[in-house]
Amino acid sequence: MTGRFALVVATYSFNDPGLRQLTAPVHDAEAFAEVLADPAIGGFEVTTLINQPHHVVGAAIGDFFSDRRRDDLTLLYFSGHGLKDDAGKLYLAMTDTRTLTPLFTSVAADQIDYAMTGCHSNHQVLILDCCYSGAFPAGTIAKADDQVHALETFSGRGRTVLTASDATQFAFEGETPHGQATQSVFTRHLVAGLRDGGADLDQDGDITVDELYSYVHDHVVAERPRQRPKKQDNIEGRTVLARNRNWQVPQHIRTALESPAVRDRRNALEDLDQLHRTGGAIVRTRIHDAITRLVNDDSRAIAAAAASWLDSHPTGTPTSSASGSGTAVKTDSHQVRETIPATTPESSKDAVQHENSPATDQAPPHPDPAESSPPAEPPGPSDDERATEPATLFSEPAPRRRLRDRKWAIPMAAAALAIGCVVAVGGWHLAPTGIAGHAVADATALRGADVDLLKLVAAKGYHRSTCHHMNPDTGQVSFIECDTNKAATAPLARFYRFTSIDKLTDFYQTYSRFMHTGSCPGDPPGPDAPVFDHLRKPVGRKTCAVDPTVNPAASMLVVTDEPDLAIAVSAYLPSEWTSPIAEQLRNYDAAQGYRQFRAADEAKDPDEFTSADKDLLSHVGSDFTRMNCRHENPSQPANAQIDCSATLNYPNATFESQPTAAAANIGYQSEISVLSGHACDGRPGQDSPWTRNNRPIGRFTCVAFPGDTVHPDDHSPCLISIHDSLHIMSVFCAWSAGAPQTAITTEPDLVAWFQKWAG
Question: Residue 168 carries which DSSP code?
Answer without folding.
Answer: S
